[in-house]
Structures are given as C-alpha cells and as structure tokens.
Design goal:
Distance between the termini: 21 Å
Number of helices: 0
Mean pLDDT: 94
Largest sheet: 5 strands, antiparallel
Oligomer: single chain
Strand content: over 45%
Radius of gyration: 13 Å
Shape: globular
Structural class: mainly beta
C-alpha cells in the first residue's frame, strides 16, 4: 500500500494488493497510529516494511503489540518529538509468513 497521514486524521492506505485480509488504521495521538486486524499478525511470523517517508526530517518506528495490533510512531528526527503529517504515499507492506 501507499500510506498517507495528514493533520489529526488516521492514516489512509491506498491498497495496491491485499492478500492478508481486513486491516484498519487509527490515530491515537500526535504521531501515534495503530494498525488493527482480527488476529492476522502472527507472532514471529509478521514482517512490516515501511519507507522512510517523504521527508528525511522524520522517522517511523513500528512495534507489534499483539496478533491484532501494531503501532507506528512518527517522530521529528531533530527533536525526537512525535509528529503528524510526515507521511505522504509512503511504501508500506505487511507480510505474514505461514
């Protein structure tokens, strides 16, 4: 998918191909977003690839919380403060291996 987040909105994925199932995105607070599913993210078998973003001043960190949720945290590199509106059409892929 291509992932875009702006303002106080949840990220929006332009899906290029989906062989996994239904995945939704929510925004928790500034720079903190959740990727939600119904138990699709198998522990030790889920791999997420996310591009660096459209602006080198920001970084994205991904953390698997459980089989249904992982987080994306976007930070301004210079201050390490959480930031919104840093990702526009960023490459984003979830792979779950059997």
């Amino acid at each position: 998918a291509l992932l875009t987040q702006s303002g106080t909105n949840a990220p929006v994925a332009t899906v290029l191909e989906n062989t996994l199932g239904t995945v939704t995105f929510t925004r928790s607070s500034t720079g903190v977003y959740f990727v939600n599913s119904s138990g699709l993210f198998t522990a030790d078998k889920t791999f997420v690839i996310m591009g660096a973003g459209t602006n080198a001043a920001y970084t994205n960190a991904i953390n698997l919380i459980n089989s249904s949720v992982f987080s994306i945290v976007t930070k301004l590199s210079s201050t390490q403060s959480d930031a919104d509106s840093a990702n526009t059409k960023v490459a984003f892929e979830i792979r779950v291996y059997l």
